[in-house]
Specification:
heterotrimer; A mainly alpha (168); B mainly alpha (465); C mainly alpha (634); A: mainly alpha; Four Helix Bundle (Hemerythrin (Met), subunit A); 7 helices; 0% strand; B: 465 residues; mainly alpha; 19 helices; globular
């Protein structure tokens, strides 16, 4: 068990634990903070996969920009004073059951998939996450989706303007 | 490609129109003109004329099936825009942006009708959905509209997550994003197919079912359709939904028939069909609001469109296009009329035949078509769907179920006809908006539906694949 | 030429469409001209066929009517001597009656007038289809068409409910017969795979005796309905509710003889089944006697003629039943002449009397309406069998044929012929001789009918008088023209080896003596100034038609009504309605329950969606179990 394996397990455990914390916190601010930890853990995984660029982008965009924005909004809205919606205990129970069932199915699929059993994660290798390769692929093979995603962002921007504009 | 490029360009043009064009009334006509050019561009491409020759192959493949569907969809949008000019002007203050978003949705449609790569499927679905989240909430001062928008967004995000999970699993199973599956060299699988791929496909199908409002993933639909401004509901319930079906069909056509013949997928679809027909039809019966009734009716109709995905043969392919046409036109007409009536409840329609005979008559035709009465397009639409199942040779009980639910659907459709024709009342209509142009458009649509019902070959002969 | 043949039925159909669709636009004269004109042209076209001897050996096929892998039923016409003869009768007599109607119906409003003529044209179309068809299916089309027209025309004055009941009765009775006809067609299809005459007749010998007997009996059931034989005859007297020209055309000259046509056409089949032949003959003679006995004491002029028609149809079936097919067809022709004449004459009388149909209220009309009087007299003589009139010749042949078949049959038939003479003279005396018994208003109203009515009467009278000469017995210097004409299609009964001369003279002598006796008796009893018209004892039974209608009501109609009432009030109300409404209520209930799932809470929705995904996974991995389970249930 070398150091990368230990790091891998640690990051995985951290990500899972933080994710559970995200959904169990009553205070949304704590949820957001835990979520940031999840993103850091995932960025750690990227690093292990030799994808430094993705790791950095993940931190900058998700943990940095989006989550901070979330935090600001939540703090400004001052959610503490909102009445807490008390969920039915049965609904919670059902939620755990159905989520657990889905988890069982996914786990069993992964276990039954023969191609997964034989393989372990190849760490510190691979070059897809490097800037150079990513750039090359984006401008050759995936040029069309890359271009078309501009429409997606444009429509999101138009939407943001429409929603955010002050009504006179 | 023509339609994709043109619609993106027109979307941007319309964005600038909000600054450049001072005459508010002109914007609707500019948009209509834009749609016309897209329509022409698409038809030109069908017959081999392209604006650019950009190598798109592994991502998109423009086949006749998709191009014909584009024509139908763009034509429907065109009719929708002409019928809803006034409503769109009234909904919020962002008319140019409204059209911009519609043009972007058309971009999404053109991608979804030609995608060859799951990445493109994802992009197309998102381009289709994000403008709709905003359009749903475009009536900003209306709380119902806000609520609907937020609900739609939340559930849409959830389904996007599911979809990505599915695509990731398929990637894990096959090592490629291509729609056409790669070779499966791995041993120890289920009928030669990786478990990951099967799981991923099921999850992806669930996400697609969500977009197509197929039960049990339909829950967003009634609430969102009810809360959204009427023209948006009309747009969403028809063109967008039908496009989602087409994308779903394309996915299953490749992934379910060609490679996974040994795996029987029919049961999942059968369960979805029965659930959709049951929930859509049964719930529609008890609605008091026509808008909500139509929302459930659109779920019920989705159940019928699922038959195409169930049988996945040539009849289904033709039938899906035919169904798209018949269903979209009739529903667009009904929603357009509804927006001219102030009270959306069934009582609000009482005595419409006396006050607005044209509206009542055309609406009656639309309703007859939706309930599948012969001599209307709806009859043949349903017929082709059921015929496709019969052609598969098994699951005859599914046909019987379909016929039973079609019978039940007559109840709520005829309830509206009954209100319009056999009940007395003074419906509160917005008379100054019912222009001769509007009436003539409705008549054209109704005539078209009857023509399609009388001579289905008119349209079908045109689809030679 | 084939197109010309097609024109013959199409012309009346065109007339039907024109007159029917433009009934509110056309004026009365124009309607009359169009409606009569198309029939007139059709008659001329038929004459062309008749004189050019255009009788193609094969059926003329126009298009495939019903085609599938097993059967190919084409829309084709068979033009031969038999169908040409019927076409001549239908278009010829039909034309005269159309002309007559233009005047008879002049009191109607233009729209109703047009309705009348459109029905009449449709009738002629259907009748032509019936006789022209080259297979049983086309014949059945025409068969149903004439049935519908008969229904429409009997109920022409639909404001009178009594008339509507009569129309309904006619329709139902006819339908009972039609079931037999249809079953026969199915039977033929099942055994031979075809209903074309040519194929059926050439393969008839291949059929087993059971098949032939069954098919012919079923065909005869159809004939019983259409040609008003026992037990389905009661509709015909009631059908007199329709306008008198309709009675003349449909219920005397053409439609009711469709049964005779069918059997004559199927003679090959019948000849193979002696049992069926005997049944036909027995039913024929029984009907002839029963109807003649009822006709004796009826007081409604049209009822007498109606029963007379039933009786004469019985004669025709006797002829068919003993194998003298041509004789039966010959009687159809002569009967068409004199019975149409009698009905039209009766119409003229009714017209003169201002709608009165009761002969006890008539009398002494001889002077007032001379043309009607003379033509009616000729008709009465013809139907009574006065020597050398058409009726004499045809009836003579029937009696001869019956005699050579069986003696009792002959005597019964002869007795029916005597009764015929008796009731016809009775009517004649009561109407035209003696003193007038009606009221003053009617006496003032009396007038001869206009030329449009009298000219057809005269033409028909000439035909009734001399129309039989085409088949004058050789004994009196005649030739076998008629039988020879039909010989290619319908075989005649051979009288070889029989001493015809003696029988003919005996019949001639018997007829003359009998007629004189009957004439004298009738003159004494009925050419009177006062006539009660009330009967007692057995006469009363006859006057009440042997209580047949009451009997039918008691044994068929009332039980049916009771069963229907039971089904309606018990089975329908509580059983079927309960199920239907129960389903509706269940759906409404489930609607209310299912609606509750739509709670509006996003969390719940997503929860159900996740659950659904897991359920779908279960379904996918266990579908074999599910299918097996479903198969076990159903």
């Amino acid at each position: 068990m070398d150091i990368t394996t230990i790091v891998f397990w640690f990051l995985s455990a951290l990500a899972l634990f933080s994710a559970i914390m995200v959904i169990t916190r009553k205070n949304p601010i704590f949820s957001v903070l835990w979520l940031i930890i999840v993103f850091f853990a995932i960025s750690g995984h990227y690093l292990l996969l030799n994808a430094q660029f993705l790791a950095v982008v993940n931190i900058i965009v998700y943990a940095g920009a989006i989550m901070v924005l979330f935090l600001f909004v939540l703090m400004m809205m001052n959610l503490e004073n909102l009445p807490v919606v008390n969920k039915n205990i049965w609904m919670k129970f059902l939620g755990v059951i159905s989520g657990g069932l889905l988890l069982c199915i996914l786990v069993s699929t992964s276990k039954s998939a023969a191609d997964m059993n034989l393989k372990t994660i190849i760490m510190k290798e691979g070059n897809i996450g490097l800037i150079e390769n990513l750039g090359k692929v984006l401008f050759t093979k995936y040029a069309l989706p890359f271009e078309i995603s501009s429409i997606l962002f444009l429509s999101a921007m138009v939407g943001a303007v429409v929603i955010g504009k002050k009504e006179s | 490609m023509n339609a994709l490029i043109l619609s993106a360009v027109w979307g941007i043009i319309l964005m600038f129109c909000s600054i450049l064009v001072k005459n508010k009334k002109a914007i609707g006509y500019i948009a209509a003109f834009g749609l016309l050019t897209i329509l022409i561009g698409n038809i030109a491409e069908t017959y081999g004329t392209q604006i650019t020759h950009y190598n798109i192959y592994p991502m998109l493949l423009l086949d006749r099936f998709g191009l014909f569907f584009n024509t139908i969809a763009i034509l429907s949008v065109f009719i929708f825009v002409l019928l809803s000019l006034i409503e769109i002007r009234k909904t919020g203050k962002y008319e140019p942006e409204f059209y911009t978003l519609i043009f972007f949705v058309i971009c999404g449609i053109t991608i979804l009708t030609s995608y060859q790569n799951l990445l493109m499927l994802f992009l197309g679905i998102e381009i289709l959905s994000i403008p709709l989240y905003i359009l749903t909430g475009s009536d900003k001062k209306n709380l119902k509209s806000n609520e609907a928008s937020l609900k739609y967004f939340l559930m849409g995000a959830f389904s996007t997550g599911i979809m990505l999970l599915g695509i990731a699993l398929i990637y894990g199973g096959t090592g490629t994003f291509n729609l056409q599956p790669g070779t499966h060299s791995v041993v120890g699988t289920y009928h030669g197919i990786s478990f990951l791929e099967i799981t991923g496909l099921i999850i992806l199908m669930c996400a697609m079912a969500f977009k197509a409002s197929v039960a049990p993933f339909h829950f967003w639909a009634p609430d969102v359709y009810d809360g959204a401004p009427t023209p948006v509901t009309s747009f969403m319930a028809t063109i967008v939904k039908v496009t989602a079906f087409l994308a779903f069909f394309k996915l299953c056509e490749v992934r379910v028939t060609d490679t996974l013949t040994a795996v029987n997928w029919k049961m999942i679809f059968a369960v979805m069909i029965v659930a959709t027909l049951f929930i859509g039809n049964i719930t529609a019966i008890f609605q008091q609001s026509v808008k909500r009734m139509l929302a459930y009716s659109s779920i019920a109709q989705a159940g019928f469109m699922m038959y195409a995905i169930f049988s996945l043969n040539d009849v289904a392919k033709e039938g899906l296009l035919y169904y798209a046409m018949a269903y979209s036109l009739a529903t667009i007409g009904l929603f357009a009329t509804m927006s001219k009536i102030k009270d959306y409840s069934f009582e609000g329609y009482n005595g419409l035949a006396k006050k607005q005979p044209t509206l009542a008559a055309t609406n009656a035709i639309f309703l007859l078509s939706l309930s599948g009465i012969p001599l209307t397009a709806g009859f043949f639409a349903k017929y082709y769907m059921l015929a496709s199942v019969i052609k598969t040779g098994s699951y005859t009980w599914l046909v019987i179920v379909g016929v039973c639910f079609a019978t039940i659907s007559i109840y709520y459709y005829f309830r509206l006809i009954q209100a319009m024709y056999f009940k007395t009342g003074n419906p509160d209509t917005i008379d100054h908006e019912i222009t001769p142009f509007f009436k003539n458009m409705l008549i054209v649509v109704a005539v078209f539906i009857v023509l399609l019902g009388a001579f289905p070959q008119l349209l079908l002969n045109w689809f030679y694949f | 030429m084939n197109a010309l043949v097609l024109c013959i039925p199409l012309l009346p159909f065109l007339g039907f469409l024109l007159v029917g669709l433009l009934r509110n636009k056309l004026s009365r004269p124009l309607i009359g001209i169009i409606a009569s004109g198309v029939i007139g042209i059709a008659f001329i076209l038929t004459l062309v066929i008749f004189f050019t001897h255009y009788y193609p050996a094969n059926a003329i096929t126009y298009f495939d009517f019903i085609k599938n892998s097993k059967y190919d039923i084409s829309f084709s016409f068979q033009v031969d001597q038999l169908s040409t003869l019927f076409m001549l009768i239908i278009t010829g007599v039909g034309f005269l009656i159309h002309v007559y109607s233009t005047s008879y119906m002049h009191d109607e409003t233009p729209a109703h007038y047009a309705r009348y003529f459109s029905y009449l044209n449709l009738f002629v179309f259907s009748m032509l289809l019936l006789v022209l068809g080259a297979n049983y299916v086309i014949m059945f089309l025409g068969w149903e068409g004439v049935g519908i027209c008969s229904y429409l025309l009997i109920g022409y004055w639909f404001k009178n409910n009594q008339y509507n009941y009569a129309a309904r009765k006619a329709f139902v009775m006819n339908r009972i017969g039609d079931v037999g006809f249809l079953l026969a067609i199915f039977w033929l299809l099942a055994r031979l795979g075809s209903v074309d005459y040519s194929i059926v007749f050439s393969n008839a010998s291949a059929l087993s005796t059971t098949d032939v007997t069954g098919i012919t009996i079923l065909l005869f059931v159809g004939a019983i309905g259409k040609s008003a034989q026992i037990p389905l005859y009661t509709w015909l007297p009631d059908a007199m509710a329709g306008p008198t020209p309709v009675s003349a055309l449909i219920h005397a000259a053409t439609m009711v003889t469709a049964g005779i046509y069918m059997i004559a056409r199927s003679n090959v089949l019948y000849s193979l089944s002696p049992v069926s032949m005997d049944i036909v003959a027995v039913i024929g003679v029984a009907t002839a006697l029963l109807a003649a006995s009822i006709a004796l004491f009826q007081n409604d002029i049209k009822k007498v003629l109606a029963y007379s028609t039933v009786s004469q149809l019985g004669f025709m079936f006797v002829a068919l039943g003993v194998g003298a097919y041509t004789t039966g067809v010959f009687h159809v022709m002569t009967h068409a002449f004199f019975k149409a004449l009698l009905f039209l004459g009766a119409g003229s009388v009714i017209h003169a009397m201002g709608g009165e149909q009761d002969i006890t209220k008539m009398g002494g009309l001889r002077k007032k309406i001379p043309i009607t009087y003379w033509t009616f007299l000729i008709a009465v003589l013809a139907i009574s069998g006065f020597p050398f009139t058409s009726g004499f010749i045809s009836k003579d042949e029937i009696l001869l044929a019956a005699y050579s078949h069986s003696k009792p049959l002959f005597w019964l038939t002869a007795f029916a012929a005597v009764l015929t003479a008796f009731y016809m003279f009775r009517v004649f005396m009561l109407v035209f001789l003696g003193g007038f018994r009606g009221n003053d208003e009617q006496q003032h109203h009396l007038h001869e009918s206009p030329p449009a009515m009298t000219i057809p009467l005269i033409i028909l009278a000439i035909l009734a008088a001399i129309g039989g000469f085409v088949q004058l017995p050789e004994l009196f210097g005649g030739h076998d023209y008629f039988n020879q004409f039909l010989a290619p299609v319908v075989p005649a009964l051979s009288h070889e080896g029989e001493n015809l001369a003696t029988k003919e003279y005996a019949l001639l002598g018997g007829t003359i003596v009998g007629l004189i006796i009957i004439f004298l008796f009738c003159k004494k009893w009925f050419a009177v100034n006062q006539f009660e018209g009330k009967y007692t004892g057995f006469k009363n039974v006859l006057a009440h038609k042997w209580y047949m209608d009451e009997l039918y009501d008691a044994i068929i109609v009332n039980p049916f009504n009771n069963i229907a009432g039971f089904l309606k009030s018990i089975v329908e109300k509580s059983g079927i309605d309960g199920i239907v409404n129960g389903v509706g209520r269940f759906i409404q209930y489930s609607s209310r329950q299912v609606r509750l799932i739509q709670s509006g809470l996003v969390g719940n929705y997503i929860l159900i969606m996740v659950l659904s995904i897991t359920v779908l996974f279960m379904v996918f991995w266990n579908q074999d179990l599910i299918i097996a389970f479903l198969q076990k249930i159903f």
